[in-house]
Amino acid sequence: MPSVRSRMQAAVSPPGEATPGTERSWTKTVVQVVLKLAYPALILCAWRWDTPRYVGCMLFAILWLQRWAGSGAVATSLRRLSAIDWAVALLLSCASAAIVLTNSELLLRLYPSLVNLGLLIAFGATLVRGPSMIEKFARLGNPDLPPAAVRHTRRVTQMWCVFFVLNGALSAYTALYWSRANWSLYNGAIAYGLVGLLLVAEVVWRYLVVLPRAARSEA
């Protein structure tokens, strides 16, 4: 029985010594973090390479490695993809394949815009079907969200959709009119700085304002 065996291993392990399951968990977390950082790092460095198809190959690999690392085995990972997930993954896969086949710098430059389009589709679909994307994330840390917080997460999801539209449009503009270095800097660094700023601001606002206000209203 795996569960009993794992508890026995944890019981006999010396204090401070990681069990195999813990080690695998840490390894998986590290891989996920590295893969999440790999995409902006690749875009940030892409302007230095004169062969876009190499970057296209790496984009394709990062895309599917991220999905594999999210749930372990490849078959398990693929079974967990929803219809929307498949649509976004296939969109970006086709874009990567087109870059590889054509060696087109323009297609490579437009790839970040397609990433924004994919995120817009993923977030927007949750507004139609529910729960909203931000509500899903919020429930990871606070499963019992009050109704006011649920309404807040829906508004934040709408805000993210607007952000993806604007960022995608600006990304397309940089692809068409900016130099390689400036395109790379915006799409590999500045855009992700904006994403991080929005994420932190929303979490701080939710925990410092939205949740306390909801708790007071229900008291």
TrEMBL record:
Domain of life where this protein originates: Bacteria
TM region(s), chain numbering: 86-104, 110-128, 160-178, 190-209
Record's keyword terms, sorted: Membrane, Transmembrane, Transmembrane helix
Annotated stretches, region: Disordered: 1-23
Name listed for the protein in its UniProt record: Intracellular septation protein A
Lineage of producing organism: Bacteria, Pseudomonadati, Pseudomonadota, Betaproteobacteria, Burkholderiales
